[in-house]
Amino acid sequence: MAENPPRIPSMNEILESCAERGFESYGREACRAACSRALDGVRARRKAGDSLAAVDEAFWTQVAAFLKVLPSLQLRGAINATGVVLHTNLGRAPWPEEAVQAAAAASSASLCEIDRRSGGRGRRDRPVSELLARVTGAEAGLPVNNNAATVLLAVSALARGRKVVVARKELVEIGGSYRMPEVIAAAGAQMVEIGTTNRVHLKDFESAMGDPEVSLVLRIHPSNFRIEGFTKEPPMKEIAALCRERGLPLVYDLGSGVLNGSDLRGLEQEHPVQDSLADGCDLVTFSGDKLLGGPQAGLIVGAKPLVERLRRDMLTRCLRLDKTMLAALEAVLSIHALGEESARSRIPALQRLSLTHEQLRQRASAFADAINNSASAIQASVVDCAGRVGSGASPTEDLPSAGVLLAQEGLDAEQLAQRLRDADPPTFARIQDEAVLLDLRTVADHELVILQQWICHQS
Ligand SMILES: *Cc1c(COP(=O)(O)O)cnc(C)c1O
Question: Residue 409, Cβ neighbours under 10 Å: how many?
């Protein structure tokens, strides 16, 4: 005799049961997250034909287990209300949902290094490498752990024990003690510095290339600073032509690496990866978690024989990516492969960069109204502000934005900002005009709901 399948209660009903079971002390958001994960399991069992799967004791055992671990983690999710789209300290690019799903699906056993047809060993980087080549139009691609690693790898594979030509005006330091001269030294090569702090000429490249020990020309995008005034550098095309004539590889560390969306505000100074390849660079390197909008990774694209030399280098094995990162990267690159429209609507980093001042003002206005119409002890007002791309991209460019200033009687701005950081999830804001500023450009829609609820309930 078939039994009627038990009804799956609503989230609100489940949360009430959480309170009855004494889980309240973990906080509502933690309970919601734990129950939602456990409910996924119930739904999956139903789908698989177990019509009796229910919110039963097994369900509650799982919720209790999640609650023991997840809310006490230090590396938990946070809300970025700073207006800095690629905030390095908050983990740079927010992942598109497709990447989250792909990584979760690959987190158990995955096809990361197995050939599906033969059942034998496969090449771990193949799907992502092929996709990289396809979306950039390059002959070949190679993903590694991060962009810092691509330069180390390229110099090590192509110039270990020999010399690298590099312009003085490009000897950058990236955040986190990553200094170009030290990277080149660590890769076992010697630098031949050319030009001055503000200028470098084609003849500087030409005379340096005369040294028979030189085996690589390295150019670095001055990501996080600008030199203005009396400056000069030869066009990349001319340097590339010279390198080809001398048979020397030209490697360009682009850093931010725009594939689609280079016309977005704030990105006018960034060179798209495809343009750098068209200019004749033999290898171009960029980050996965900057303007590509995906997980941390270092991506190398360019001439096949050079990419193959890098792939065979021992360092590549030391710098390889995790199966979940490869899956997330494949998802992000697949979105880019569908074109500009797809990238802009599906990749949160690009989506956030394309929000206009008008859209943000409307968002801020509705948010402030909801707070001011509640019984909250916090007052809100709409204000114009300036966001940033972040992570070294377009460092001198402001993103015209609008946000909400928060104030609470009896608390100074730093105290209120601290309360927001202590909230669940922790929320990071800026301080402007001695008030707390939430720049809503970098807050996702579902985070906005949580944040609004939290603020409205402050007494
Ligand atoms: C950001 C950046 C790097 C470092 O990239 P990571 O992915 O953070 O390792 C290296 N070079 C340039 C030019 C950069 O902008």
Answer: 7
Rounded (10°) CA dihedral 151, 86, 138, 97: 130
Q: How many angstroms does the Cα of residue 286 sit away from the middle of ligand 1?
A: 7
Ligand 1 site: residues with CB under 6 angstroms? 146-148, 174, 178, 220-221, 223, 253, 255-256, 287, 298, 392
Contact 337, 134 (CB under 8 A): yes
Alpha helix stretches (DSSP H) within 21-75 = 28-47, 57-69
353-456 CATH pick, 3.90.1010.10, 3.30.450.40, 3.90.1150.180, 3.30.300.30: 3.90.1150.180
Q: Residue 186's pLDDT is what?
A: 96
Q: What is the pLDDT of residues 368-414, one digit of tens each?
A: 999 999 999 999 999 999 999 987 777 777 899 999 999 999 999 99
pTM of the model: 0.92
For residue 426, the model assigns a pLDDT of 94
Q: List the chain domain ranges.
A: 1-75, 102-346, 353-456
CA distance to 361, 365, 372, per residue, from 368 (Å): 10, 5, 6
Question: Which regions in the chain score pLDDT beneath 70?
Answer: 1-3
What token pair was written down for 181? 């001269």
The pLDDT of residue 3: 66
Q: Report which protein residue has its CA nearest ligand 1's atom 14.
A: 255
Residue 220 alpha carbon to ligand 1 centre in Å:
10
CB atoms within 10 A of CB 427: 24
CA atoms within 13 A on the CB side of 321: 32
Decide: 300 and 141 in contact? Cβ < 8 Å: yes
Q: Does domain 102-346 have CATH number 3.40.640.10?
A: yes
- Joined tokens for residue 298: 């270092």
Residue 264, pLDDT score: 80
Calculate how far, in angstroms, residue 313's C-alpha sits from the geometric centre of ligand 1. Answer: 21
Residue 234's Cβ-count burial label (10 Å; 0-12, 13-18, 19+) is middle
> What is the Cα–Cα distance from 347 to 93, expressed in whole angstroms?
9
- Can you spell out the DSSP letters for 229-287? SS-B---HHHHHHHHHHHT--EEEEEES-BSS-TTSTT-TTSPBHHHHHHTT-SEEEEE
Residue 2 confidence (pLDDT): 55
